[in-house]
TrEMBL record:
<protein>
    <submittedName>
        <fullName>Armadillo-like helical domain-containing protein 3</fullName>
    </submittedName>
</protein>
<dbReference type="InterPro" id="IPR039868">
    <property type="entry name" value="ARMD3-like"/>
</dbReference>
<dbReference type="InterPro" id="IPR013636">
    <property type="entry name" value="ARMH3_C"/>
</dbReference>
<dbReference type="Pfam" id="PF08427">
    <property type="entry name" value="ARMH3_C"/>
</dbReference>
<keyword id="KW-0472">Membrane</keyword>
<dbReference type="GO" id="GO:0005829">
    <property type="term" value="C:cytosol"/>
</dbReference>
<dbReference type="GO" id="GO:0016020">
    <property type="term" value="C:membrane"/>
</dbReference>
<feature type="domain" description="Armadillo-like helical">
    <location>
        <begin position="435"/>
        <end position="671"/>
    </location>
</feature>
<dbReference type="InterPro" id="IPR016024">
    <property type="entry name" value="ARM-type_fold"/>
</dbReference>
<keyword id="KW-1133">Transmembrane helix</keyword>
<keyword id="KW-0812">Transmembrane</keyword>
Length: 689
């Protein structure tokens, strides 16, 4: 028995010698795949077809099994099936609409699966006939728009979105899906916005709507004018923007909650006791177990909203009670055991109830806090390409936020203080932070904490240079804003200085290995210029004069690192080689750091000798520093408070192309139009009809 026949749906065997009977719908599919017009002998053929329960597997496999010559022979019938599917979407009989939507999905998937190497025009021709394609797709998009915006049942709207997701993700590279040209012309943007602006429909369909929008925005975004990009960039309707924020927030919150539960599960019981007994020797194993797939689709949606729409920035800061998903009754989302954590949408109960039962002790939260917590999980593990890309996208989003004046204003607002419990990577040399000890501070402190955490925890052999560059640049942009607005932020700056100095130390210790892959001088220059920012402008944004003294203390205390860096860059810049110019820039950037070291070191040594002290205390060194500022000469360096603004193209184009491909493949796998959902839908509409 052939593979297609196996999927035909057997009814019964009349005897052992006779072939099993086929379902009527399968027999009708076979008529479509014959040369004759199926309606020739049965004028009611198409009416009857859409009253039959769709056999998705058989129809798709039949389409995939058709060879080149057969395609030409049955093309008129396939075109006719597509046409009658679209017509059936306007029927009052809901079962016909359900079956037409599912048949369209099977058509899109089956034809593309069979013709992966065919041009987009050939696929359009096979599906609907090239000469009629424009009208067919116009009719299809109008009817889908009508179903999404009208009084259709929630199940029907869900099926419409599933069909659209199926259509958008049917090719690996979304930009090679020529059918989407018609989706650009016949926009469903307003229908998506309507779903997001309404609390009830958002609860049911918000997740699919946001993912669909994120994918449509990425169709040929660098090659032509994409109307979804244009429209998204000018949305200023508050309920719509809030709705998008709610969907993203709830998806990230659920991921954070699940991760925390898994973390606590791994830390409990006998295993926890055993690891503490043997000195946390199994930390790596625990970390591996917690390495879970991120929700890149929802992260892409957040990026596009932040990057394209300045009005969305206000949504990041809107406060609301912090949701604790574990305390709310939820309907479990059906997933398979292999479904990665965080790739399924939040449960419907959660999406439907904006006012959830909350612990009165919980503080207020906002989308930015939830995102920062999410990012702190993602950046912990960057060992493979997938997780590296997730971390990269988080840092790109933070880059866009750090450049925005309004975002910077609320990040630094002293009246908006929050306790942000970031996840920290388990490390042998430090204790786990206690949540209750986290102070309530402006949100910029949490962003800086996240950057410091990344710097400290990723100095490894497989060095993530790109992430380090982004991380240091985010810090620089925040400092530029503080300098410009003279904001004296009460932050533990010494932790940042210490992390940056240790990073320089790591670059020096691994010079040969790292230079084989990376331009370490560019990163070293950025780090040194952060210190130059503090040296030159620190008196305008450091919280107290003591902070400025402590900066000098740290530079003098760790002078050996800066001395070694100078020797290294001087050596490279005086020899001919590919890094000559890059190293020379670091040499010039070190002028003030070296001036501080060369000025204060002799003074400190002299103080120690005069007072017969072998080792000075911190306070004694600070006293020497304070009393010798007057004789210190520094050079004014230009451009320290300037930075290159983020631009997606051309630098990030290749990254987003691959990211969208990965998301598209994942969404395609998760578009659920299986037999179970068919049964549920048919049961619902048979009672209505």
């Amino acid at each position: 028995m052939s593979q297609v026949e196996k999927k035909a749906g057997l009814l019964r065997r009349t005897s052992s010698s006779k072939k099993p009977l086929k379902e009527k719908v399968v027999l009708m599919y076979d008529e479509i795949f014959a040369k004759e017009d199926p309606a020739k002998n049965n004028p009611r053929f198409w009416d009857e077809l859409f009253l039959m329960k769709v056999n998705l597997e058989y129809l798709e496999s039949k389409l995939e099994s058709v060879d080149g010559e057969e395609v030409q022979r049955i093309q008129d019938n396939i075109n006719s099936l597509f046409h009658h599917c679209v017509q059936a979407l306007g029927e009052e009989h809901q079962i016909k609409v359900v079956n037409a939507l599912q048949t369209l999905c099977a058509l899109f998937r089956g034809v593309h699966q069979k013709n992966k190497s065919a041009s987009g025009f050939d696929i359009i021709n096979m599906l609907m006939g090239f000469d009629k394609a424009e009208q067919r797709m116009k009719d299809l998009m109008e009817r889908l728009d009508s179903l999404l915006c009208g009084d259709s049942s929630e199940s029907l709207k869900s099926l419409c979105l599933k069909l659209l997701l199926c259509l958008v993700t049917v090719t690996d590279n979304i930009s090679q899906n020529t059918i989407l040209e018609y989706v650009m012309i016949n926009s469903i943007f307003e229908a998506i916005l309507q779903i997001l602006s309404d609390v009830s429909s958002r609860g049911q369909h918000g997740y699919d709507a946001v993912v669909l929008l994120a994918l449509l925005v990425n169709y040929r975004k660098y090659e032509s004018v994409n109307p979804y990009i244009v429209k998204l960039s000018i949305v200023d309707d508050e309920p719509t923007l809030d709705g998008m924020g709610v969907v993203v927030h709830q998806a990230l919150t659920e991921y954070n909650r699940q991760y925390k539960d898994k973390e606590e599960e791994n830390q409990g019981g006998f295993f926890s006791t055993l690891t503490s007994m043997v000195g946390s020797m199994f930390i790596a194993d625990v970390d591996e177990k917690l390495s879970v797939q991120t929700n890149e689709a929802i992260l892409l949606a957040l990026y596009e909203a932040v990057h394209l729409n300045r009005n969305f920035i206000t949504v990041l800061a809107q406060s609301h009670p912090e949701i604790d998903i574990a305390t709310t009754p939820t309907t479990p989302t059906p997933t398979t055991p292999t479904t990665p954590l965080g790739t399924t949408p939040p449960s419907l109960d959660m999406m439907n109830n904006p006012e959830l039962p909350l612990d009165p002790n919980l503080q207020t939260s906002n989308l930015l806090i939830t995102f920062l917590k999410y990012a702190s999980i993602v950046i912990q593990d960057t060992k493979d390409e997938h997780r590296l890309n997730s971390a990269r996208l988080c840092l790109i989003i933070l880059t866009c936020i750090a450049e925005d004046q309004y975002a910077d204003a609320f990040l630094h607002d002293d009246n908006m203080n929050f306790r942000v419990n970031l996840h920290r990577m388990p490390m042998r040399h430090r204790k786990k932070a206690v949540d209750k000890n986290i102070p309530s501070r402006p949100l910029v402190c949490a962003v800086l904490d996240l950057m410091v955490e990344f710097i400290v925890t990723h100095m490894m052999k497989d060095f993530p240079m790109d992430l380090y560059l982004r991380c240091v640049q985010i810090i620089h942009k925040l400092l530029c804003y503080q300098k410009k607005c003279r904001i004296r932020l009460h932050y533990t700056w010494r932790e940042l200085w210490s992390a940056l100095i240790n990073l320089l130390k790591f670059l020096l210790s691994n010079e040969t290995t790292l230079l084989a892959k990376h331009n370490i001088f560019h990163l070293a220059l950025l780090v040194v210029n952060l210190f130059n920012m503090f040296i030159t402008y620190g008196d305008t944004f450091l919280p107290t004069s003591n902070s400025y003294d402590e900066l000098y203390y740290e530079i003098v205390r760790m002078h050996q690192v800066f001395d070694n860096l100078y020797c290294m860059v001087l050596r490279v810049s005086t020899n001919t080689g590919q890094w000559k110019e890059a190293a020379s820039k670091v040499t010039h950037a070190l002028v003030n750091v070296r001036a501080i070291i060369n000025h204060f070191n002799p003074k400190i040594e002299s103080y120690a000798a005069v007072n017969h002290i072998s080792q000075l205390s911190e306070e004694q060194v600070l006293e020497v520093v304070r009393s010798n500022y007057d004789t210190l000469t520094l050079k004014l360096q230009d451009g320290l408070d300037q930075f290159e603004r983020y631009s997606e193209q051309p630098k990030e184009a290749a990254f987003f192309k691959e990211l969208v491909r990965s998301i598209s493949l994942n969404v395609r796998k998760n578009v659920s139009l299986n037999t179970l959902s068919q049964d549920v839908l048919l049961k619902e509409f048979s009672t209505i009809s």
